[in-house]
UniProtKB/TrEMBL annotation:
GO MF annotations in UniProt: metal ion binding
Protein name according to UniProt: Protein cereblon
Compartments it resides in: Nucleus
Species annotation: Asbolus verrucosus (Desert ironclad beetle)
Gene Ontology CC entries for this record: nucleus
Amino acid sequence: MSDSDDNANNLPDGQIENGHVPADSRSDRARDRRSENGQECDQFDIDLPTSHRYLGKLDNVTGYAFYDDGEITTLAAIQTNTLVFPGFTLPLVLNNDLEINMLQRHTQKKNAFVLLTPNKNFKGIFPFGVIMEIFETHLRNDVLYLKARSRQRCRLIPGKEIKTLIGELYQVTVKVMLEPPITSPIYNTQLNSLKIHRMYKCTEYREFCKCRKYRQYHLSQYPLAGWVYDKHEMCFLLDQLIRGLSSYYLIEFVPDDPVQLSYWFVQNFQLRHEERLKIMVLGTAVERLRLELKYLNMKRLICCANCDAEIAQQNDVFPMSKDGVQSNYCNPGGYVYETVTVSEATNFNLVGPPSAQFSWFPGYSWTIMQCKMCSSHLGWKFSSVSLKPDSFYGLAKSGFDVKIVDEGSDNL
Ligand SMILES: [Zn+2]
C-alpha cells in the first residue's frame, strides 16, 4: 500500500481500466494482472461500490408504488448538495434520534421521499426534485443506514409551503413528471397509411437513414431544409451523443436508450451545477440530449473550487462503479459526498496515513487529498496492493469546480 503520489501514474500504457479509454490507445484491451512487484492482481469489480457495502448489512424494503403523470402528492423531503437522476442510487446515514423517528414515521406507508437540491447560487431550494424509493434500510446502534433509488422526477407546487419537520427534513407537495412518448417532430403530419411503416418514429439511426428518400419527399412541402428537421430527431441526437462519448468511455458502458442516456450523461459527464439544473427542468429526452450534445462539445478542466488550481483533466475521469464515474457515497457522520473518480490528478498533497475504515471501494485504503496551493479538501487517494488499478483518486464534488476552457462550436 502506498500513501505517496508516486504511484499515481503507474497504469500501464494502453490499458483500459473499467471503461475508461486512454487517449493514446483506444483499441488495446489488454489487461496487466501484475502489479509492479510482480504480485498477481485482480481487476476491481465495479459492481461493488453500487452495493455500498461499507454501510453493513441492510434489510430489503419493498412496496414503492409508481406515481402517475401529473399526480400531486405530499411526501417527506431531504435536502443534500447532491443531485440524483432516475435510475441512480443514494446512500444515507442518519445519526440524530429525532430525525430518524420523523423520517421513519413519514416513510412508513409510502416508502418514498423527495430529494431536494440547492438552486444555482446554493442559496435556496431548486423547485425540481426526484422521488426516491427506499429499498434497503437498517437501524444499528441508534444509527439509521439506508439506500434509496431515484425513481421519478417531480416539481414543487408553486405557492405550497415547504414545511420544516426537523433539521434537514422537510414536508413538500409535489407534482410528478413522467416522460412523454418519443415521437418525431413531423410525426403528426405523416399520412396514417404511412405511419404503419414507423419511418418517422424510429430510434435507430441506421433505420432512419434507410427511410431518407421517403422522408425527403415528405419534407419537400416545408420551407426549411431537411437537415433542420433531422437535427430534432431522437435517433440523430442519440447517434451524435454516443459517438462523442466514445472518446471518453467504452461504448458498452453507455446506455443506448434515449431516456436512460439523458440521465446517465448528467451523472457521468463533468457538468457545472447550474448546467445540471438546466437539464433537470427539461421535460423530454430530445430536449435534454440536444443540450447535452452542446455541453459535450465544450472543453473542460477540473479545478480547485477555492483557488482555481488545475486538479485533473476531463480525459482523466474513469468509472470505478457500475453507476459511472460519478457516484454518491456517505461517510459515518452522514455527509453525502458526490465523488468523481479520476486516474490521474495534480497539484495536491496527501494528509495523514491511509485508512481502510468505511472505505467506499472494498479492498482500497483512502488517504485525504488537499489542494497544494490553498490546502482545501479535494477528496481521497485510493490505493490497494491486491487490486487493479492499484491507485486512483476520488474527487469530492464539493471540493472542485468544472471550468469551461473552450465553449466549442454549437453546430445544432
Ligand atoms: Zn486550491
